[in-house]
Amino acid sequence: MSVPTELGYTAEHEWVSVEDGVATVGVTAFAAESLGDIVYVEAPQAGTEVTSGQPCGEIESTKSVSDLYSPVTGEVVEVNEVLESAPETINSDPYGLGWLFRVRVSGEPSGLLSAQEYTKLTEGED
């Protein structure tokens, strides 16, 4: 399973990419595979304040319901509307079309794992 090197990761299996003060957040391929077929996503709504490391939504699969954690602090500015009608997009393209939400960050994200650190973390969870 490839882990894109340009992204930051959390131990809760979210990825983040920050460009011009806006962070795009999603769940990793490892998480998508572990969850199984994703059937519903409850992401934070635009205008909501999220806090790094805190739960901000849920992902429901045929196996379980899991909390979503924000890897950054700031205001949600966009939610991926594709996921309302096609949540399985996360399974097929977790690092592309399956992104969850975007946040205008207040400060630089801290405590993120590198791709190498995240890969090491997930190797112990197989």
TrEMBL record:
User: Where on the chain is N6-lipoyllysine found, per UniProt?
Assistant: 63
The superkingdom listed in its UniProt entry is Bacteria
Check the record and name the HAMAP family matching this protein. GcvH
Look up the record and name the cofactor or cofactors this protein needs. (R)-lipoate
Which key words tag this protein in UniProt?
A: Lipoyl
State what protein this is by name. Answer: Glycine cleavage system H protein
The record's comment on protein family reads: Belongs to the GcvH family.
